Structure formats: structure tokens, C-alpha cells
Q: What sequence folds into this?
DNA sequence: GATGAATGAGACTTCATTCAT
DNA sequence: AATGAATGAAGTCTCATTCAT
């Protein structure tokens, strides 16, 4: 590390160093997918390896922190969507949820990337439910309400959760494959429409 | 015994060891997800570590072989489905494809498991298109035919591939989460029906 | 490592490699007292670091093994002394014990060295009683027998164990300071005599 | 306030910080035996790590200072005992020495603890004679005087130093094992008596 | 002078790979 | 061709020391 970057670091506040490390880790995750080496994170953050260990007791803890931050953030987004659409029709609610997830994912691309995507990552020793479980729970609630209001056909109730879950995972995948800054069409509206109306030509 | 038949025997024996190693590797992958160690594969196969290197020049090659075998097998299944349903309606063709994929996945659980699932695994240095690309290509073809035959609404043509892809990934996920031998409902038929008719209550 | 020593190693039997490592570790302990590095042990044994881990799962285990081997060996010596002098007078028994310890220590110089000497070494996670405890227990038994036989003055019974323990530790210290191969006077006989008769000039 | 007194104040303050650090180090040594970390010493002293380095150029120097202070203090005690008992009988002198050492050790428990006990600690790079050497030198002098005065049997003169040394080490050990504030019997008197009279039952 | 975050050399440990038997 | 002990590069983590504030 050269003198300049070192000085820059010194002037940074302690809290921001922690954040800088997390951001660096996120960047490395985005770049390298697996085999995330502490050395690379340190280099990306512009600090020495030892510094990482001043903020996180182990590699595991650093990874868990990233995973958990992402989950918390996502959960907040989802709860917000839930609150914002209380009482609306299912189509509006689903569209809003999809749009919310798109927004969330664009903000957290890096972190979401790290295989955290849809399964309880083996790196995550927190015992917290994986993000997808949180989403699924909300979707199930949403579908049951819609069913009670007779907005959706009861005969497919067994596979609705599965289908919506598939849509959401696809949204994750789409964002993951997108390059930073790419413009995307409004998939949310169209997905919900198709889901409601079906593909069958009249 | 002449030289030739002896060599043939050798070749056959060698091939079976090779297969045993691949199966062992598949089993280990299924058990451990990541961190697949050569030592564990050797133990599972009942051979020495050195033997692995008599059949594969490196860990990478062993992994690639598994990935590629799986891809070839899957491709064969898909082509078969394509041939078997030539000229049929899209709903039948999709249902058949889904059923085919279920069958394939149950046969190749282990191998499919290894994150090989839907992206060009970083372990795969073969440069071959990932399995999902093959599926998507076929699905696109299938959709275009359906469009020409006015079986599906043209206005959602941009998101059909995406939706079917989502369904297929979900199928992969369902099988992956299933325990060996679990009985599963006929998702294929219902998924296709829902896709065609939509969720909207009449 | 050069080719020659490598070949020498390869021809060594597996069990002897383990022993060679333990001996090498003992030699390093003798040389460096503290800061015993795995690298140095490997170098001393003429093997690579990784080889150490083929025989011991960790540094800790290697150290514990040394400690425990030494303890077992010492215990055997002590038990033997006990058996050999059953029924004799205390002076003979003590002399025999001292001589036995001298013999043991000369055989196990290296290993005894490593602070293992008299306390439950912090390196030893085995939960076994430290060597000195074993000795002390035997000595106490020996003193009580002598007391019953009225061979020793009862009024100092509280400090006899302490004094004998001090003698024994001194024996350990003497051997530790001795260079390999040094000739030593017969401390055992004289120590016991002095202990029994006292220093007071007539 | 003139320059001089200001500097004196500074010096005094500095000295007290220095002392605080040494005491803290002593406390940590007492607690942790080995693995004495600068961070722990700083925490115990209530100063920053950097402050340690304002008073000691290195960990080594800090440790050496402790060792040497202890040696100086002990030497003063021993010289005092020597002076106080000039011309007395050996039994009185030994008893006084033992009592003096007990007193010293209780005052300096912590520092004495750190394996500094009886050998030229590897931490001590000062080249000074270890404490035990100082004691032994005095004891030798004391024994030779007693021999001249025919107070002790000449035939064990070769092992007297060794035995007294063993006693003294045992005293160190006893104090080390004692908890702070434990009450101890008067070992000094009884040890000397036993040494002089012997254990042999009349 | 005090501070303590940052540093990085160095120790431990793992595991893909080699190669003599 | 099979074996598996030996190898050592590479990764994680620790902690004495530095230095800008």
C-alpha cells in the first residue's frame, strides 16, 4: 500500500472503515463469486489484512455480517411494500412487491450476488431464515387474502406460491446478470398481468 | 488372449474405474455441496488419491467432466422431448418438457446439485454453453412456433421465455430440495395449465 | 529439502516417521525452550510441514503426545521402583527412587526439558495429572509407611513431602543443566543420607 | 514555576506512569503465565498501547525491566538478611534467609511468577546473573562460614548448596501456588530444624 | 505525551498434486 | 495401474510495533 492511500485511510472515521471493509468485501464478492480471500478484501478496501481483523473476528463473521445486513435491508423493503399496499388488490400488491425487489436488488447488487441468493448460504451461521423464506411467507399471506377476496382461482392455490417464488427468483437472476447501470424494462407490471390473465390466446 | 482383447479388457476396466470415480464424486458433491476434497472422492470411490490422477489430470478436469456429462445427458433428454412432441400444441410440449426435466433431474440428482444448476459454473472451464442455455434455446423455438400458430398471446412474447425459464429453475429447485425417493405431485401439468389460463378468478 | 534426505525419508517406515517427528520435536524443544515452531520441527525431522499434519492433527496434539509419552514413561519407572523396593527401609526406597529418576531423566532429557517439568503444562490439554503429582503421591505413601514403621520422626511429617519434592525437583534441575554425556556424582545416596541424619555437626 | 521544577514534575509523573505499567504487566503475568500480550498490559494499566512504547522501547525491554527490578529488590532483601545475621549461627541465618525470601515473594508474587523463577529466563537479555545465582552465592558463603565454625558436618559439604537451593526453590513454588492472602505455616523454622537434625527416628 | 487504528511479518493449517514403491 | 505418504503453496489469523492525530 502506498503512503497516500494509507493517509486517506487514517483520516477516515472508524465507523466508515468498517463500512468501507464491508463495501470492499461486497465488491470482491461481485468480482470473484467464490474463493473470496481476505487478502483481496483488504486490498480492495485499501487496508492491511490485520485491519480486517480489527473489525471482524474472523472471515466467517465478516461474511455473516454481509449476509445479515442484506437480509435486514431486504426485510425492511418487503415490510414497507406490505404496509404500502395494505388492502389493495393482489395484482397491485404483487406488482409493488416486484418493483420493490428490483429497487432493492439494484441497490445491493454486490452483496446479493454471493450465492446468498436463494438458499441458506452455508457461509451463514446465523441461524436466521434466508431471505427467500421471508419473501415466501409474505407472498403466502398475500395469496390467502386474495383467495378470500375471490381474486384468484382457488384450484391452483397449491402452485401459486411456487410460481410467484419462481418469478421472484427470476427477478433476482435478471438483476444479477444485468451490468451495473443497465436500463431494464418494466418486468413487474407485465409479469403480474401475465400471471393473472394467462398466456392462452383468446 | 490376444493383445487386442486384453487391451479392450483394460479399457473396459479402466472405464469402470473412471465411472466409479465420477459416481463417487457425484455422491460427495451431493453430501457436501462445497469444499469437495479429492481425498473424500477417493474414499467414496474406494480408491487411492493417486488413482484419481490416473484418470483425471486435475481436480478441475474431474469437475468439468461431471458438469459436461450432465449437460450431455440433459441435452439428450431435451432433444428427445423435442423430437417426441414435434408438431404438438405448446401446452403439450411444455408439459412434456417439464416432465422430461423432472425425470432427468431425479436420475442425476447428485451431479445437478453442485451449483451447476443454472449458471456457467466457475468450475466449468470448458467454454461449453451451460445447460440452462440449451433449455432456453429450445423453449424459445417452441414459443415462436406457438406464436406462429396463434396459440399464445403475442403481447407477452417478451416475457414468455423468462417465465418459462423461471418455471424450469423452480423445477430444478424443487427436485434439489426433495429427499431421495420422495413422491412429488404432478407439477408439470398444473404449471402449464396455470401458465396458459392465468390466475384471475372468473 | 534435498533429494537425498527425501529419499531417505521415503524409505523410512510409517511408524518410524511418527517417531522421527517426535524425536525431532524433542530436539527442537531442547534447543529452543519456547517458541517451538512447526517449521523447525519439520526441518529437524527432514520432512515438509504438511507431513507433520499427516501424523498429528495440530501443534497442540504433537505437544500433548510428547508430554504424555514422557509422563507414561516416567510413571512406568516410578511404579517399577515402587515394586522393586516393596518392604524395604525408607532410605533404600528413596535412594532407589532418586536413582530411578536420574536414569529416566537422562534417557528423556529433551522431552523433559520443555517446561513440562513440574507443573501441569499449559500446553497439555489432556487433563492427566502432571508427572510431579504422580511422584508426590508415591512419596507420600512411602513416607506414611516409614512413619508406621517408626523409621522417621513423626514431628516433621508435615514437611517431609515438601522436602522430598524439593529434592526431586532439584534432581530434575541438575539433569536439565547437565550437558549430554556429563558424568554425575551419586547424588542419590548422599541426599538420602543427609536427609536421614541431618546436617548438624555432632 | 521554573523550568527545573516543571521538568522534575514531568519526570515524576512519567515515572509513575512507568511504575503503573510495570505493575500492570506484573498483574497480567500473574494472571496469564505465558502469552503476555502488550494489549493486555495496556488495558490493565489503563493506558493505550502506544504509551507502553513511550516508556519501553520494546516488549523485551519491558520484560527485562521487570525481571531486573525483581532481581534488584531480591538482592537488597538478601543483603539485608546477610547484614542482619552477621556472626550468628547457621541455623538462625538460614531461618532468617528463608523468612526473608517468604516476605519478598509475598510482596513480589506477580513478578516472580513469570517463570523468571530460577533460570536465566530466555526473556531476560540483560546478561545479568539470575536471582538464584545471587542466592546461591550467599548460601555458599554462609555454609563455608558454618563449616569453619564446625556447625555442620563436613562430609556433606558437596551437597549442602544443592539441598538449600532445593529448599529455596520449594519456597518459591509454595508461594507461587498459594492464593493471595492465604495464611502459611512457619515453614522456615521447621525446614531448618529438619535440615540440621535429620529425619532419622532416634 | 497519550492515543489506538493500522500495519504486516510470521505462525498455524489445509489440501491439490506428485512420485517412489 | 494403484497406492498413499510427502510435499509446499496458499490461505487464515495474531500481535508487537508504528505513527498521524
A:
Amino acid at each position: 500500500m502506498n503512503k497516500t492511500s494509507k493517509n486517506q485511510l487514517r483520516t477516515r472515521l472508524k465507523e466508515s472503515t468498517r463500512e468501507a471493509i464491508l463495501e470492499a468485501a461486497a465488491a470482491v464478492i461481485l468480482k470473484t463469486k467464490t474463493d473470496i480471500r481476505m487478502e483481496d478484501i483488504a486490498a480492495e478496501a485499501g487496508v492491511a489484512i490485520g485491519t480486517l481483523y480489527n473489525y471482524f473476528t474472523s472471515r466467517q463473521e465478516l461474511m455473516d455480517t454481509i449476509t445479515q445486513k442484506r437480509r435486514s435491508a431486504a426485510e425492511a423493503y418487503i415490510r414497507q411494500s406490505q404496509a404500502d399496499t395494505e388492502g389493495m388488490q393482489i395484482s397491485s400488491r404483487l406488482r409493488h412487491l416486484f418493483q420493490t425487489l428490483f429497487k432493492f436488488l439494484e441497490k445491493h447488487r454486490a452483496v446479493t450476488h454471493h450465492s446468498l441468493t436463494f438458499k441458506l448460504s452455508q457461509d451463514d451461521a446465523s441461524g436466521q431464515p434466508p431471505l427467500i423464506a421471508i419473501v415466501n411467507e409474505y407472498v403466502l399471506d398475500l395469496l390467502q387474502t386474495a383467495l378470500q377476496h375471490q381474486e384468484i382461482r382457488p384450484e391452483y392455490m397449491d402452485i401459486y406460491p411456487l410460481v410467484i417464488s419462481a418469478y421472484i427468483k427470476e427477478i433476482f437472476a435478471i438483476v444479477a446478470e444485468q451490468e451495473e447501470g443497465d436500463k431494464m424494462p418494466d418486468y413487474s407490471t407485465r409479469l403480474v398481468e401475465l400471471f393473472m390473465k394467462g398466456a392462452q390466446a383468446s
